[in-house]
């Protein structure tokens, strides 16, 4: 086992206000959050020479003692060059404060839980300071917003919390939605089912969640919709669609029905992102080819 050296890091203005635990996660790379809490709890981490708590907010000029961390001989998984190039090509916008990436389906935001790497691992090769402002499920494709530094992350996260960011998704419901528009205001709670799988269900004890379903096209056995969300709960659209009795096509977790022929992924795509800037920046992502082809096959079947 190799051991890193102790470091003393002085907090600059860009990181002022960041929580200690999040700061350490950025400093210690792939170290699990539980391990970060442990080294804080045991006093190995010091802020200005004193013990601290994980959620303590850091101030400019604070000196943080980052302890030596024991590491195994196994190195973190190297992100393939091809994936790094693919992710770099998926950056649709970038300035000094933020970036917008058109994430492909099947790529998680982060590595971990059995995944060797994710979107942020690939971006870290050339943009180590970038951090996600919100997240998309691994199975979901489309636009995701990243902050280029800590101060920008705080500002953008506040815009999300104040519901000033407009997010719309394209989805295919299994079954017919009779109304042209349906608003779902149903709190969501994370559970673990009998098989040990983590799921999200509607539960009065859960967190508030709001989704607006708008019919774009009715197809044989399915309804093509646009979904606007004002909250960003885990699996929100997937859980709300299942709550309506119309789970998303290709959703292995919430839909037991066989998906349309040749559909090999979840039919959910984040296609619209509007940010509350001076000129209201709007970003759009076209429906990926496999999802367009699924719609074309359903249209070819005819009837509604």
Can you put this structure into words, describing what you see?
- The structure is a single chain.
- The chain has 304 residues and is an alpha+beta fold.
- The protein is built from seven helices and 18 strands.
- Strand 3 and strand 4 (50-51) form a beta hairpin.
- The chain folds into three domains: 2-71, Structural Genomics Hypothetical 15.5 Kd Protein In mrcA-pckA Intergenic Region, Chain A; 81-152, Pseudouridine synthase; 164-301, 2-Layer Sandwich (Pseudouridine synthase).
- The longest helix is centred in the last third of the chain and has 13 residues, at 289-301.
Summarize the structure.
The protein contains 7 helices and 18 strands.
Give the helices and strands, then pairings.
Layout: E1 2-3, E2 7-10, H1 20-27, H2 33-41, E3 46-47, E4 50-51, E5 63-66, E6 70-71, H3 81-89, E7 91-94, E8 98-103, H4 119-123, E9 131-132, E10 141-147, H5 150-161, E11 166-174, E12 181-185, E13 188-192, E14 198-202, E15 210-219, E16 222-229, H6 236-243, E17 268-274, E18 282-284, H7 289-301
Parallel strand pairs: 10-17
Antiparallel strand pairs: 1-6, 2-5, 3-4, 3-5, 7-8, 8-10, 9-10, 11-16, 11-17, 12-15, 13-14, 15-16, 17-18
Question: For the record, what CATH class of the largest domain applies?
Answer: Alpha Beta
Q: What distance separates the N and C termini?
A: 64 Å
Structural class: alpha+beta
What is the H/E string? Answer: EEHHEEEEHEEHEEHEEEEEEHEEH
Instruction: Give the CATH architecture of the largest domain.
Output: 2-Layer Sandwich
Count of strand segments: 18
Overall tally of structural domains: 3
Shape: elongated
What is the arithmetic mean of pLDDT? 89
